[in-house]
Amino acid sequence: MATPEPLVVDGCTPTPLASYLKALGVLRLLSSPANNVTGEAADPRARGWWDNERFHLGTALTSDDILRFFLEDYAPSPIIAPWNGRAGFLEGEEQESSTRTGADLMRRFEASPARRFANMRRTIERSRGNDELVRLNRLRARTKALKNELKTLQGEEWKSRDEQRKNAEKQEKQSKRLLLPALRSATEPDHVSYVDACYVLSVDEIPMPLLGSGGNDGSRDFGVNFADKLTQLFKVDDGFATKHGKSLLDGALFGGGRIGTRGTMGQFSPGQGGSNATTGYEGWNPLNPWDVVLAMEGTIVFAGALTRSWGAAGGNQAAFPFTFEPIGAAAGNFSTEDPNRPRSEIWAPLWKKPVAFVEIAAVFSEGRLTLGGRTARTGLDAARSVVQIGLARGISGFERYSIIQPDSKMPYQATPLGRIATPDRPRRDLIVDLEADDWLGRAQRLTGNRKVASSRARHAIRRLEDSLFQMSDAARAPEGTRNALVSIGDFVDWLTTNRKAREELNPPPRLSQDWIRQADDGTPEFRIAAALASLGFPPTMPSGRPAPVSADGASETDLTASVHRHSPDEPSRSPVAPALPMAAHFAPIDETRFFDAAKIRRLRAWATDTPPTVVWSAGSLVSNMIAILERRMVEATMRGLPDKPLAGAVFVRATDVASFLEGDFDDARCAALLAGLVWAAPARLGSRRSRDGTSVLEPPFAYAALKPLFSTDAALRCTGALDGAARLPVPPGLLARLRAGGGSRDGRVTDEAVRAGLIRARASGIASPFNPSSSHGRGPSRIGVGVRADRLAASLLIPIGERDLKAMLARVWPGAVPDDESQMEGTTDVA
Questions:
Q1: Lowest model confidence (mean pLDDT) among 68-82, 192-206, 227-241, 436-450
Q2: Phi, psi (5° rounding) for residue 375?
Q3: DSSP per-residue codes, 365-393
Q4: CA within 13 Å, CB half, 765
Q5: What gap in Å lies between CA 50 and CA 333, rounded to an integer?
Q6: pTM of the model
């Protein structure tokens, strides 16, 4: 027998939430014996799945069979909330004669002999006879009567009646606390699921955000709305489908037919239509009653439970399937200044493989995502959990909704926030690095204190949270990681200006190398930022390569000795003393606790005062780089360092420096990335991404002449340019001269700097064929034309590799570097 073609249920899509709930409702009802007047499921083997933004059914039933089931055999679930004032059970003394909608509807269904409404009829009858509900109804009537009497009384009589009112209200509150447990324990089995979908019963009732504050949203009772729509689809007295109900069913399920009624879905489908929702002008809200009925049937799948497996102790929201505390991240339509906090986040799971309802019910019955052994409480926790579990549960993604009130006078709405895709395989959670000593949580709580945090700080944390959400999506993870680094840098910049905030929050913890690996986009901007951020990080000696030896035969142990052979991926073999970290130029950090924080599990800390090393300002990238370069040279003298503190654990190619110098370079992006990268451990960079895929840039001669002066003496010894204890110091005033030249491109300032550099090199034993005193012939006259003096000065801070350093030396000092290829053996290009 051929397998039937799957049915595409075009009326059920992942958004809006009402349409998603319809899909759950359809699959549940087709699989449920209790919702069929025959007592047997329409198709117990029905399977459902999502594909191409539509719900699909694998079933032995045809589309006509499904339509016939809903029109003839469907028995509605008892979606009734007797505890709500508008549900028709708490009408006071006018219980039997009340004309309110809820009371009238309950009387009609209670009196109906139709088999279709047997579930509802039995539930109504059970509720009518519930002692606690009867008692609460009597107490409410008594309280209402006493309030009315007080309006006509005065003096002692008023005081007496008011005391009676207070006692009645106290008894009413006690009765309310007992009502839900009493109803749940005595109601029909089919009604228990709706009670559990509305509340988790504990010491205090916990309402399910999906169903408002207990089956209602303000004055709208969802059960009353459900019953009202049933009266439009079926005749209450005999249960037969109305002509209206028949004509609208196909449209609700398969997208055909015409919607010809008016009404609203409430929070489940905000913006469903209405006035001016389409071309032309309309004065009514189009609504298919079947959409309301089927969506409400789908809400029952979200029934919660207060059990250990739910992890409810970790937060009230965790008591319900895929329901989390809201944080507003990755939701561009929400503002950090919005006073209307979302009620919760609800994540609707999507799956691509055909599964039976019992399998989906099992997923919802567990309904939790875990993070590091604990139940995910917030939407961000959930996103991180999704990254770690991969497709282990067969869920391909989640449609994320926020239950939010746009305005204090408007009802809540289930607003889509986007989709979180489940990766094919688990990935490492980089965000865990930010949780060292609860740094991320502390930062979030700090910015929640408006007495301490400015709007800038709140916006920075909000952008960070948005970026962390991006990191959970495999397709957007690299971009999200870069954005997160930028946000961290911006937030720390605010911290440096707020001493009170620094008293409550330490500097960012050490971010692992994976942050750089995941964020690396191969652009010169990122590569240069990563190289600059690695300045001061202690390199390690690669295996099989001895440390350079100084003139007295002792092994070199200073920071610069092996930087150009360093591979951050290799295990530490010969640790060296740390030098000035790049982060010290961005924030007042305690340098003694910067590098060893991860090793000995000490937290990074702030300096007691703002040291002079903090030179990064709101100026341009170029001016800040020059300020850092000058400060590092000053610190070398003040600290008595044996070499220039210009070595980095990561270097870039000379072509990247050429991109920086030529001007086709995004300074702002590089600066923003650098501010965040200084808190990460250096890592091997990927291949450089060519700007246009064809041209290969080369730094100008002026750079080649000056870069050796701003390289460590140890690195120059490795190239063979320096012998023994010889050193190549920077001529006094050279940087100041270039900085003063600003954006000049006429070459005069640059030429003077190059001449000074050549003279200094000759004094150190590195002779050049170019005559530094000549202004013609073979002298370096006008070689700086077209090169910005200040940009050239800034470029001298960027670490380059040994091969490029040799190339620079060979251009200016032919013969100064040995041509022995064996010198290159064992070198490691981090780039």
A1: 192-206
A2: -70, 135
A3: HH---EETTEE--BHHHHHHHHHHHTTTT
A4: 13
A5: 27
A6: 0.76
Are 638 and 579 spatial neighbours (Cβ–Cβ below 8 Å)? Answer: no
> Amino acid letter at 720?
G
Q: Which of 63-77, 454-468, 709-723 has the highest mean pLDDT?
A: 63-77
List of residues 6+ apart from 670 with CB closer than 8 A:
525, 526, 528, 529, 621
> Given this model, what pLDDT does residue 242 score?
95
- The answer to whether the CB of 236 falls within 8 A of the CB of 112 is yes
27 or 719: which leads in pLDDT: 27
CA distance 215 to 217: 7
Which residues, at least 6 apart from 242, have a Cβ–Cβ distance to it below 8 Å?
232, 233, 234, 235
- Note if the bond before 44 is cis, omega within 30 degrees: no
Amino acid (one-letter) located at 281:
Y
Residue 625 pLDDT level (bands cut at 50, 70, 90): very high
Task: Give just the sign of the alpha carbon dihedral 388, 394, 399, 402.
Answer: negative
Size (the chain), residues = 831
- 16 cis-preceded (ω within 30 degrees of 0): yes
Cα dihedral 50, 51, 57, 60, rounded to 10, equals -140
**Phi-psi region at 418: left, alpha or beta (left = phi > 0; alpha = psi -120 to 50):** left
| CA-to-CA separations, 773 to 196, 232, 708, 747, 754, in angstroms, rounded | 91, 100, 20, 16, 11
**For residue 363, how far is the Cα from the chain centroid?**
24
Contact call for residues 126 and 188 (beta carbons, < 8 A): yes
Contact status, residue 88 vs residue 106, Cβ threshold 8 Å: yes
Q: For 577, left (φ over 0), alpha (ψ -120 to 50), or beta? A: beta
Task: Tell me the backbone φ, ψ of residue 344, rounded to 5 degrees.
Answer: -175, 175
Torsions phi, psi of 745, nearest 5? -120, 10
Q: Are 252 and 10 in contact (CB under 8 A)?
A: no
Using alpha carbons, select from 213, 219, 298, 206 the residue that is nearest to residue 252. 298
Mark 212-244 as b/e (b = at least 16 C-beta within 10 Å). Answer: bbbbbbeebbbbbbbbbbbbbbbebeebebeee
Give strand pairing partners of 234. Answer: 241
Give yes or no for residue 688 having a pLDDT over 80. Answer: no
